[in-house]
Amino acid sequence: MELAKVLAGIGGLVAGVGVFTNWAAVLIGAVLIYVGLSAYVERLGDVVAKDNAVKWLLYVVFASVAFAVAQSATGFSLLSLHAVWALPLAGAALAVAAAAWVAGWILQVASAYRMRQLLTLMKVTTGEGLFGAANTLYWWGSALTIVLIGAVLLFAAYILIGAASSPQSFRSRTRRVPP
Predict the structure, then answer these.
(1) 4-21: string of b/e by CB count within 10 Å (b at 16+)?
(2) Which sign does the torsion angle of CA 127, 4, 167, 9 carry?
(3) Which DSSP letter does residue 175 get?
């Protein structure tokens, strides 16, 4: 169980940094968060929460890929900025980027719905208040991702998930769960 907490803690930090650096880091962080939260949920024996964890991971994976497509299509990469917009297909690239961005946003909001239920369970069963704060930030960050300010909130949410998941954060407050 301690290893799962450590993995979720590291995952939160990696995903948080990934929000601003690289979609692959978000994916790696999300998988580590999933491993940590799943181990705890499995220990609780909550089948619905386990299902929410799986669906959250799937939504995050697809949202990250959609945002990566949008970023690539608009040429946010400094190396390809000139090449993308110099092509006669700049309008098509912009349309693909807009469609991918909207798809990513919808999937991100869907992931927030699943994560909301998981973080509420974590807050209630562990007594760790950071899960509640992360819950609110993740929800609003996902909703506001469409206008980019949500990325800042998602960054903070992932960092709080990492901090709340660390072994030291809720060791003394954890509700006794039967083995």
Answers:
(1) bbebbbbbbbbbbbbbee
(2) negative
(3) P
Closest CA to 49 of 122, 153, 151: 122
CB 137 within 8 A of CB 154: yes
pTM: 0.79
d(CA 97, CA 79): 17
DSSP tag of 170? S
From first to last of its 179 residues, what are the pLDDT tens digits of the chain? 678 788 888 888 888 888 888 788 888 888 888 988 888 888 888 888 889 899 999 999 999 899 888 887 776 544 455 555 556 566 677 788 889 989 999 999 999 999 999 889 889 888 888 989 999 999 999 999 888 788 889 889 988 888 888 766 554 444 544 45
Question: Which amino acid does the sequence have at 107?
Answer: L
Q: How far apart are CA 127 and CA 138, in angstroms?
A: 19
- Provide the H-helix boundaries in the chain: 2-21, 23-44, 47-74, 81-86, 90-126, 129-143, 149-165
